[in-house]
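fyi for ur records
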Amino acid sequence: MNIEQASNFLVGSILVGVGFIVLVAAIVVINNILSRYWRPVNFGIIIPKIFSESPGRFATDEEIARIAPQFDKKSVDLSKNK
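which gave:
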């Protein structure tokens, strides 16, 4: 391989990489424009459902204060810690 072939390979590789980046950016833009016309894709067969769902609401400090702690008396014996 001489210097001319190597430079052509380097330039071609860079142009192919830039082309893929432009193609992905165009697909993302088109997807964002047209996303209101279809339902979201469910990847439940490939990806578990827990990864595709939005996270639930977390409890606030006031809600946690209203919940009384519940312990199993057999598994938690505080008399041994004295």
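The mean pLDDT is 78. thats all i got for now
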